[in-house]
Specification:
heterodimer, A: mainly beta, six-stranded mixed beta sheet, five-stranded antiparallel beta sheet, 46 strands, B: 2 helices, disordered N terminus
Chain lengths: 606, 196
């Protein structure tokens, strides 16, 4: 009886906190000390507050740029909270092409709203589905039955009803309802194609007191494998620590890394256990632990050895990197603050290697967004007005072929390049107004109307009016899927959290550039001497685009070159004339007949 | 392109030189019957600068006019103006270029009658050379103050009319972004003169 009483308390605790958060402002630290399972409401220092106004909102002026940024037709959509506690909270708009028509749909299920919505790109609601109770982000999208359409995988969660797993189609019709009794879960299903059969598997971390269970289901709800983890997760929180998929043994399929929070004698640890699809443990991960609780981990092959590393931010602010065999490669707190939330992985400096991008904690104060390389060397430190738990995004925002960084907090949506230069038109003022725990507006980069230009989605809460809004913005900049390294939180709509470079598919072009000097009788001028070799034989290049950046400015097209202009697959030209003392940076792109980027050179600075 | 700017120092020097020359010449007394000569000629000008010659060629045609005043006995005071204009080609960037020069000169001289029809004049003076070059997408203007040394051999074909052979060398320089450039050069030409 006492055991069930504790269970009930554990389940009720998050809702209680949500209620308190809406009821009064102020800092709330709550830690339920249970003997068997503990429920941490928040990481140390994270603030739960209602109706807060970002204190440094005015410190950052909105950039007035030339790039057109306007609401997408049909958006924003605003909804009342309803009977539930409401608020966007940690819920995002998840974008994917559900019906296979080439255009994207948006799926979302607001905090405690008990239903989900499917939107067409024009803002029309194309489907509604009911979930008995929702908390946190619970939706993952993926093709579960190889029908070229994607399904919606989600959970219910109440304190009284056992865990149910649902699958809905793109119209919101129920396809599957599975009782996962007696397990409970606070996190989300992960959808990923583990065995490359073009059908996503569903990965569920769940459990009851004393048992943590990893289940892998197929699209029909059949259990592929069911694993009782070696370490029992004994700590809960509204902060998520979902499994992540990755390739840790360089075989043809993906494995599942399961983070397990475990606190014993006041010592917090996150154990990472790695399993194959069939439930067999991956050798080397029998006793791997990080010395702190971590937020949602991510993974990707940072060192190019064909195996993925796992990256996570600890609650105390360290950033951890685990090698593919479980060896701790990095455990470092980066000045000046604490790493927070979910990191992102992508090649932000065009060096062919992925970097790690993450932000630092500061409770409603200015903070920093950092980027490090795989060795932990800091390569970017960008001031931002506040932190967010949703991960930064990485994708080309200005059409230069090089991925940029997008980051949303309750003040702004930022976009800047790998050197920290703001993309024209950014930051966009969001004024999220209300913070739950500061997940942020959860932006994603997409092209939902398939017009070849970028859209950004994000949520905005308005607690005073008891409503929330869903935004889609049109950015007048080309959307290039080949550069979308990390276009949304946890990388993809299935929340797999795995980085797989898209840039590797783009051929590397060999560009040479020199600054040369020339004099007339009394005039001395400098010009750029440019030479490049054409693309690989057999690659259908429709045109080459030579881009140039003057000083710290934006890249601009200075010449398009047709393939027939090349002689012996080589092209030379002069860029007349250059200003002395100002660096010029050149980059070459190759486009196919559809305007897609199929080749890019390294940047050459002269 | 930024143009080079000159201070007023050169014009002040030029004015001072003129005053000194006039005062030394003691004008007025014993002036001969025909005290003035006006000449117009055409010269072949070879610039002293090899950069100039590389772009604009070895020689340039330079028309020139000059007025000479017999101030005292055989001593003269003279002033002249010549100009050049030439297009060139810069192969490396395959672009045309153009330069224009004006040569102002003033000085003193000495005229020696060699026979009934022949007369030799020697001249020394100041030269102010201005230029404007349009090349490599820019325009550069400048000027330099220097000297000019010359000689003329006159042959009288009538009482007041003569032809002449002339040779001179002028030297001036200017500092521009390419460094110090030579503005003058060697010139040789023929012309027609009128004494009055």
């Amino acid at each position: 009886m006492k055991r069930y009483l504790k269970l009930g308390l554990v389940l009720i605790a998050p809702f209680l906190v949500l209620f308190i958060a809406r009821a009064e402002e102020g800092r709330i630290h709550s830690k339920n000390e249970f003997s068997i399972i503990q429920n941490h409401i928040e990481p140390q220092g994270i603030r739960v507050v209602k109706g807060s106004t970002p204190s440094f909102k005015d410190k950052f002026a909105v950039t007035m740029g030339n790039t057109s940024i306007i609401p997408h037709p049909g958006w924003p959509r605003t909804f009342a909270y309803g009977a539930g506690i409401g608020s966007c909270g940690p819920v995002r708009m998840i974008q994917s092409d559900l019906d296979g028509d080439g255009k994207g749909e948006i799926v979302t299920s607001m905090q405690l709203w008990n239903k989900g919505l499917v939107f067409k790109e024009n803002g029309d609601i194309s489907g509604t589905f009911l979930i008995p109770q929702t908390l946190n982000e619970k939706l993952s999208l993926g093709d579960l039955d190889n029908d070229k359409k994607k399904e919606i995988a989600t959970f219910s969660m109440t304190d009284a009803v056992p865990l149910y797993f649902y699958v809905f189609d793109y119209l919101g019709n129920l396809k599957l309802r599975k009782d996962l009794h007696p397990n409970i879960d606070m996190f989300m299903p992960i959808v990923a194609d583990l065995n490359n059969d073009r059908q996503g598997e569903i990965i569920i971390k769940s459990g009851i007191i004393g048992k943590t269970i990893l289940q892998i289901l197929d699209g029909r709800g059949n259990v592929i494998s069911k694993i009782f983890t070696r370490i029992q997760e004994n700590t809960g929180s509204v902060i998520e620590a979902n499994p992540v998929v990755g390739d840790f043994d360089a075989d043809v399929d993906l494995e599942i890394a399961v983070p397990l929070w475990h606190e014993e004698n006041g010592q917090r640890r996150t154990y990472i256990e790695v399993y194959n699809r069939n439930g067999t443990p991956v050798p080397g991960w029998e006793k791997v632990a990080l010395p702190d609780f971590i937020y949602n981990p991510v993974c990707g092959d940072l060192n190019g050895d064909g195996r993925d590393e796992i990256i996570g931010c600890g609650w105390e602010g360290a950033l951890f990197i685990l090698d593919s065999d479980g060896e701790l490669l990095l455990n470092r707190v980066f000045s000046p603050g604490q790493a927070v939330g979910s990191p992102a992985i992508g090649d932000i400096n065009n060096d062919g290697k992925p970097e790690i991008v993450f932000n630092q904690f500061n409770n409603f104060g200015p903070t920093n967004l950092l980027a490090i390389d795989a060795q932990g060397v800091l390569i970017l430190n960008k001031a931002i007005s506040g932190h967010a738990i949703f991960s930064p995004l990485i994708g080309d925002m200005d059409g230069d072929g090089i991925p940029d960084i997008v980051f949303g907090n309750y003040d702004y949506i930022y976009a800047f390049d790998g050197q920290g230069n703001d993309i024209d038109g950014f930051p966009i003022e969001v004024n999220g107004e209300t913070g739950f725990i500061i997940w942020g507006p959860g932006p994603s980069i997409c092209d939902i109307d398939h017009d070849g230009k970028i859209e950004i989605t994000y949520t905005k809460d308005n607690a005073a009016a008891a409503e929330f809004s869903l935004f889609v913005l049109d950015i007048d900049s080309p959307y290039n899927p080949a550069t979308m390294e990390w276009p949304m939180h946890q990388h993809d709509a299935g929340h797999g959290g795995r980085y797989a470079s898209t840039l590797k598919k783009v051929m590397r072009l060999d560009l040479m550039a020199e600054r040369r000097e020339l004099r007339a009788f009394s005039i001395l001028r400098q010009y750029g001497w440019i030479q490049f070799l054409g693309g690989n034989p057999g690659t259908l290049v429709a045109q080459y685009r030579l881009m140039r950046r003057k000083g710290d400015g934006e890249f601009a097209l200075i010449r398009t070159i047709a393939p027939f202009e090349l002689q012996d697959n080589q092209f030379q030209m002069q860029d007349k004339y250059l200003e002395k003392g100002i660096p010029y940076t050149y980059r070459l792109e190759a486009l196919d007949s559809n305007g897609r980027l199929i080749g890019i050179s390294n940047e050459k600075k002269i | 392109m930024k143009q080079s700017k000159k201070s007023g120092l050169q014009s002040m020097i030029l004015s001072a030189f003129l005053l000194v020359a006039l005062s030394l010449a003691c004008p007025g007394a014993d002036a001969p019957a025909r005290k003035f000569m006006a000449t117009a000629g055409v010269n072949v000008f070879q610039a002293a600068s090899s950069d100039y010659r590389n772009i604009y060629g070895e020689t340039v045609v330079m028309p020139e006019i000059k007025i000479t005043y017999m101030v005292f006995r055989n001593f003269t005071l003279w002033g002249g103006f010549g100009l050049t204009s030439k297009k060139g080609f810069i192969e490396e960037v395959e672009e045309e270029a153009e330069i224009r020069q004006n040569l102002f000169s003033i000085g003193v001289g000495y005229a020696q009658k060699l026979s009934a029809r022949l007369r030799l004049r020697g001249e020394l003076g100041l030269a102010a050379i201005t230029f404007k070059e349009e090349a490599l997408g820019g325009i550069q203007k400048g000027s330099g103050l220097g000297w000019k040394l010359g000689a003329d051999l006159d042959y009288f074909i009538a009482k007041q009319l003569f032809v002449f052979l002339a040779g001179a060398y002028s030297a001036a320089s200017d500092n521009v972004e390419t460094g110090k450039i030579k503005l003058g050069g060697l010139q040789a030409g023929v012309g027609l003169g009128f004494a009055f």
